[in-house]
Design goal:
13 helices, mainly alpha
Amino acid sequence: MDNSRSRSVWNRVPVIIRAVITGILVGLTAANLWPLLLVKLGAPVASAAEVVFLAAYMWWASGGGPPARLRAVRLDYFRATRLTAAQWFWGVIAALAFAATIHAAIVLLFRFVPFPAEAFHKGYDFSFIPSRQLQWLAVVVSALSAGVCEETGFRGYMQRPIENRHGPFVAILISSLFFMLLHLNKDWALIGMVPIVFGAGVLLGVLARASGTLLFCMLGHWIMDIGLFAYWWTQIAGTFAQRPISETGMDRAFTVECGVFAAVLIVLAIATARLRRLRAV
């Protein structure tokens, strides 16, 4: 009786509020397990444990395990579907283009304002990990954890139920807004990063809707975050050293960077459009 009453109360909560709460709990609670494992167990053991956890997490989020009565709902929220070879082809292109677009946007940002290396590095110190190889392992698994869990939470359990009730525009807007807000508690979250983070959420939301799956969003997010962790945050792959155009002028490098940003964004748009058409077939 108490369970039925609790479900009845929960079902009376507006869909948007339920979706936001569920998406945050499903996505961020799982993502926060990895830092604890890394600190407590060390990179090799923690990485193995995290991969096993992520496999079990995806199995559950896509309808496996209890509660059985919510299996169909979890399948829908996870956007579980079979994909053709053509969908995989264009999906991988979209994922790569998405990651390139975000990094190109960050490069352009720091051609307009100086790159605050210390702020970006703060909170992402992997110096406690004893070797460069293990630091790279931690980077790859950190990115994988964020990609899987955040996409399941934001583009799956948050965006999907809002899509079902209010349509994709509202759903993508809300999931992107909360994706942005929950990433702006970091030292790197200067004002110029706000439209980039929000834009990343919009692009991922559109990709999830167009493709009908979270897998390409996870892949793109994973690739993007490998670069973010390794280069922009931990800086184990180097540090951005270019100066703003206010100092260098609009040099050839800036022209190339603008061209790269436009090119990868166009590729992403083409791949996403192809995925939408393939899904409609």
